[in-house]
Design a protein that fits this description.
Shape: elongated
Number of helices: 6
Largest sheet: none
Strand content: under 5%
Helix content: over 70%
């Protein structure tokens, strides 16, 4: 038999009184496993919370790896285009336009990857809902927009340093490498 009393004091201070009331009602009834409702909920949900933390840590790791990869690809692109960037700067291009060119290329890469990932995840959710109707997954606008926004911000963050490096390429040095 389970009993859940509603009290306004700390649960540990009232434990002896609860035992006395139960023993007064029926002396052969054991009183065990006393705790707060929050403790029982925490005990019941610890696996789900641990799994959520585990998945979130892998998601964070994946975001970090993608950020490093994007940084590397963008840096390589800037490095390989250094003579072109130097030529554009020597012909009067503004540094702002160079930064925008690099950021635009990184954003296009990010949007392409996000589009491929979005299509793949939509197909997987559809397959999951058809194959396992009892565990149907609902996609909400917030579920889709929040990670997408974070990924686009990560793309911009990963491309900022290479874009700044591209804007400060010395035209004379870049033309010498041509």
């Amino acid at each position: 038999m389970n009993t859940v009393p509603s009290i306004c004091v700390t649960a540990l201070t009232i434990v002896p009184e609860i035992r006395d009331v139960v023993h007064g009602f029926r002396s052969d009834l054991p009183v065990s496993d006393l705790g707060t409702m929050q403790q029982f909920v925490d005990d019941a949900l610890w696996r789900e919370r641990m799994a959520a933390r585990f998945v979130a840590s892998f998601g964070s790791l994946a975001l970090a790896i993608s950020l490093v990869g994007l940084f590397g690809v963008t840096s390589y692109w800037v490095r390989s285009r250094r003579p072109e960037i130097g030529l554009r700067l020597s012909l009067g291009a503004r540094r702002r336009s160079i930064v925008w060119t690099v950021l635009r290329r990184a954003l296009l890469s990010g949007v392409a990857g996000l589009s491929c990932g979005g299509v793949a995840s939509a197909l997987l959710v559809t397959y999951n809902n058809k194959s396992f109707p009892s565990s149907a997954v609902q996609l909400s606008l917030g579920t889709v927009l929040l990670p997408s926004t974070l990924l686009i911000l990560a793309v911009v963050g990963g491309a900022c340093l290479p874009a700044a490096r591209a804007a400060w390429v010395s035209p004379a040095r870049a033309l010498r490498d041509l």
